[in-house]
Amino acid sequence: MNRETKRMMQRQGQMGPDGAPARRQPPPRPAPKAQRTNPAEYARQVRAELRKVAWPTRAEVIRYSEIVGVALILLTALIFVLDYGSGKLTFFLLHRPGQ
Questions:
Q1: CA separation for the pair 92, 89 (Å, rounded)
Q2: Which of 14, 17, 26, 61 would you label with 44, given CA atoms 20 to 30 Å apart?
Q3: How far apart are CA 94 and CA 98, in angstroms?
Q4: What pLDDT, in 10s, does the model give residues 10-43?
Q5: C-alpha pair distances (Å), 28 with each of 25, 31, 33, 62
Q6: Residue 14 and residue 20: Cα distance in Å, rounded?
Q7: Phi, psi of 34 (to 5 degrees)
Q8: 4 CB-side CA count, 13 A
Q9: Angle subtended at Cα 88 by Cα 83 and Cα 89, rounded to the nearest 5 degrees
Q10: Which residues have CB under 8 Å from 77's CB, separation 6+?
Q11: Whole-angstrom distance between the N-terminal and C-terminal Cα of the chain?
């Protein structure tokens, strides 16, 4: 084994500084399982977390709803125009005179 391999093994922890194989550490033990909470405790925790939420005001909800409604109308109109135009263009290109 050359010097580079020994140095690499020391960096990886496979070999001690004196060249002897390093002692392997046992794998870590799994953490003990947490105890299950009962339904009442779960409900209390949920309520506590919901109190921390920054809920929007009524005015904010109304404003956001208006913005979504306007965007929905505009995008629906745009898709309608594109669909109608592509349909007319297709019929124009595929129209065969004399039929």
A1: 5
A2: 61
A3: 13
A4: 777 777 767 777 776 677 788 777 788 899 999 9
A5: 9, 9, 15, 54
A6: 9
A7: -75, 150
A8: 0
A9: 95
A10: none
A11: 88
